Amino acid sequence: MNDRNHEDMTDPDVAAGETALQWARAQGSSMRIAERSRAQRRRKQQLRGVAAGTTLAVVLVTGALLWPSRPAAPVSLPRAVLVSAPTRQILPDGSVVDLKEGAKIAVDYGAAFRRVRLVQGEAHFSVAADKAIPFIVVAGGIEVRAVGTAFAVQLDSRKVEVLVTEGRVAVDRPVGRSPGSPLPGVSEIAPTPQTIAMVDAGKRIAVELETAVVTSAVEVSTAEQNERLAWRVPRIELSGTPLADVLPLFNRYSLVRLKLADPALGTLQLSGVLRPDNPNALLHVLKVDYGLEADRRPDGVVVLRRP
């Protein structure tokens, strides 16, 4: 293995493929992939009359499963399909809220407070730092207070769960609130809060709504955090899809923008499930299986070309 390939495989995003392998096995995908690989190898050996054909490469990376596909004859090719994506809302201060399907919030900002009520479901908050104006998420009468941090809040009929992914938050119960009683209206001034827990990054707690008592507090590994918040990551399903159709949808949700140096490269086809939050996964597949190099420009655009 040359040094460049070694660098690719030691990239944290690529090396994390072992975790994705467990997912593939759980879904029954690994056997299908292996069988498809064997079938294509046999066909290519028969056509080329050589002892070993070009094998179907399987690359597993951080929840992304990709493999190249080259049909022997022209077929009707499907476009990239967005399987799932959260609803993202940008708040007036620049804070970002990702809403899981079915979740609802009500936003109320004032001169001295930033307040969001989680009406139902689960949401993840990436809070813009402002020490002078606390950021408060209200869920079932429980308040989660932060200055600049990131955390998820899940509300059901019995409890509120808080998972902190960055920084630290305070979990409060307004003084004078009877157990199980509703919180004042969104625009009303809440009573002085009483802190019932401080939660640091990598920890999750559950608070019973009826009593406002913490019923569990546990540490959560990075892998478990990623699993619990997997709903935040858009997933794009590919099936013999031309690269020209993959990139527009990928660029819509990715932090980087990919561009083809030669339009002819758009005929390359991919199959599997792609996560736009992990561009290194796609770049690795395109390099290893198609020989494409990625030139990163100062403006953040990544140009794909043949060397």
Can you give a write-up of this model?
The chain is α+β, with helices and mostly antiparallel strands. It folds into two domains: 3-83 and 234-305, Phage tail protein beta-alpha-beta fold, CATH 3.55.50; 86-228, Jelly Rolls (Sandwich). Helices cover 23% and strands 38% of the residues. It is built from seven helices and 20 strands. The chain has helices spanning 3-10, 12-15, 17-26, 29-48, 222-228, 243-253, 279-290; strands spanning 59-61, 64-68, 81-84, 87-90, 96-99, 104-109, 114-126, 135-139, 142-146, 150-155, 159-166, 168-174, 193-200, 203-208, 213-219, 235-242, 257-260, 269-274, 293-296, 301-305. The strands form three sheets. Strands 4, 5, 6, 7, 8, 9, 10, 11, 12, 13, 14 and 15 form a twelve-stranded mixed β-sheet that branches. A hairpin with a 2-residue loop joins β8 (135-139) and β9 (142-146). It is elongated, with a radius of gyration of 24 Å. Mean pLDDT is 76; it is low at 1-75 and 178-188.
Keywords:
Jelly Rolls, five-stranded antiparallel sheet, disordered N terminus, Phage tail protein beta-alpha-beta fold, 307 residues
Question: Secondary structure elements and their pairing?
Answer:
Elements: H1 3-10, H2 12-15, H3 17-26, H4 29-48, E1 59-61, E2 64-68, E3 81-84, E4 87-90, E5 96-99, E6 104-109, E7 114-126, E8 135-139, E9 142-146, E10 150-155, E11 159-166, E12 168-174, E13 193-200, E14 203-208, E15 213-219, H5 222-228, E16 235-242, H6 243-253, E17 257-260, E18 269-274, H7 279-290, E19 293-296, E20 301-305
Parallel strand pairs: 7-8, 17-20
Antiparallel strand pairs: 1-2, 2-18, 3-16, 4-5, 5-7, 6-7, 7-10, 8-9, 9-12, 10-11, 11-14, 12-13, 14-15, 16-18, 19-20
